[in-house]
Specification:
The protein has 336 residues and is of the alpha+beta class. 29% of the residues lie in helices and 23% in strands. The chain has 7 helices and 16 strands. The strands form 4 sheets. The protein has a 7-stranded mixed beta sheet with strand order 3-4-5-6-7-8-9, sandwiched between helices. β7 and β8 form a beta hairpin. α1 packs antiparallel against α2, α2 packs antiparallel against α3 and α4 packs across α7. The relative contact order is 0.13. The chain binds 2,5-anhydro-1,6-di-O-phosphono-D-glucitol (AHG) and manganese (II) ion (3 copies). The site of one manganese (II) ion has 4 residues, from β4.
């Protein structure tokens, strides 16, 4: 049975002793966890705290910002700049690299994050999350350009997310399996509740925004058609569907009970390369999914091998149970 007495920081210290991980990474992850606790707290009172709704502003993605997109971004910056181990921060909500203020020491780590994922769900009180990805560079980066942070996902040293659902959870991998922690409000600490999460190779559940079917490419249309045909179709079984429109909640479900999550490229997103962002969504989730024994693909290759050209670059995302992802890749190969 999982030892629920272990707090997040105890887990990190234990990993450090067992695996000889870097002390600076422990410091950074502790800061990230503190940011997630603060965001969880900001979300908790919803309309009572006047934190819902949109702002006038648009982010670099061309999306109207929610108040909480900006609040969560600020929380990440303020909690993590203090760590003394970061050389830069890069966020979905910022059009520039965040330079660490001169009053703090700098380090070789770079934190890339989606401060609030699923923000369209905020005003209807549905689960949202935060996603983070961590790189370790050879030197403290020059923040005048993105050049040094344009690294492929295979170079991530850690990644994870916080899920603000009925309970708040933190799910993390430092490259040695995937582990889940639940926020214990009584002591204000995350506690280990899910050690060594693994995804079953097969599944009977898929997640996709079905309203976009008309714009999908033929391989995705084929896969989903065969899923919904159920027992009468070539799959010969009923396959259930879910769509929450919060990637964190979706990926969490896949990690907990298997399944496949897709936001494929389609006619409407072709000019941008897809819907989801490589740095803030696709790479960190791909790292976790692969660490849990699943697969994460664009349909035509491994997400973590995509060579980034732009920090806000988007990619097609197909991830989850590895046999399902392999089948969808096969349909792409047969079509191309
Ligand atoms: P964000 O709120 O960070 O901009 O990301 C939202 C993403 C992702 O969470 C979700 O999978 C997807 O957008 C939902 O898209 P649809 O609105 O097309 O369902
Ligand atoms: Mn957004
Ligand atoms: Mn997002
Ligand atoms: Mn977001």
């Amino acid at each position: 049975m999982t030892d629920t007495s272990m707090t997040f920081i105890q887990f990190l210290l234990d990993e450090r002793r067992r695996l000889d991980t870097d002390r600076d990474l422990t410091t950074l992850l502790h800061s990230v966890a503190t940011a997630c606790k603060a965001i969880s707290n900001a979300l908790k009172n919803g309309a009572l705290a006047d934190v819902l709704g949109s702002l006038e502003s648009e982010n670099v993605q061309g999306e109207t910002q929610k108040k909480l997109d900006v609040i969560a971004n600020e929380i990440f910056l303020k909690r993590c700049e203090f760590s003394g181990v970061l050389g830069a921060m890069v966020s979905e909500e910022m059009d520039h690299i965040y330079e660490i203020p001169a009053k703090f020491p700098k380090g070789r780590y770079v934190l890339l994050f989606d401060p609030l994922d699923g923000s369209s769900n905020i005003d209807v009180n549905v689960s949202v999350g935060s996603i983070f990805s961590i790189l370790k560079l050879n030197d403290v980066p020059d923040t005048n350009s993105y050049d040094q942070v344009l690294r492929p996902g295979v170079e991530q040293v850690a990644a994870g997310y916080a899920l603000y659902g009925p309970s708040t959870m933190l799910v993390l991998s430092t490259g040695s399996g995937v582990h889940g922690f639940t926020l214990d409000g009584n002591i204000g600490e995350f506690r280990l509740t899910h050690r060594d999460i693994t995804i079953p190779a097969d599944c009977a559940e898929f997640a996709i925004n079905m309203s976009r079917e008309q714009w999908w490419e033929p391989p995705v249309q084929r896969y989903v058609k065969e899923c919904v045909e159920g027992e009468a179709g070539p799959r010969g079984k009923y396959i259930n569907m879910r769509w929450i429109a919060s990637m964190v909640a979706e990926v969490h479900r896949v990690l907990m009970r298997g399944g496949v999550f897709m936001y494929p490229i389609d006619e409407k997103t072709r000019d941008k390369g897809g819907r989801l962002r490589l740095f803030y969504e696709a790479n960190p989730m791909a790292f976790l999914i692969e660490q849990a024994g699943g697969a994460a693909s664009t349909g035509r290759g491994r997400i973590m091998e995509v060579a980034p050209k732009d920090p806000h670059q988007r990619v097609p995302v197909i991830l989850g149970s590895r046999n399902e992802v392999a089948l969808i890749e096969q349909y792409h190969a047969e079509h191309d």
